[in-house]
Amino acid sequence: MTVLVANDVPPAIRGHLKRWFIEPRPNVFVGTLNVRTHQKVIEFILRNAPPEFGFLSISSHPNSQGYVIERFGPQGSTGREEIELSGLQLIPEAKA
Question: What would the pLDDT profile of 33-43 be if each residue is shown by its tens digit?
Answer without folding.
Answer: 999 999 999 99
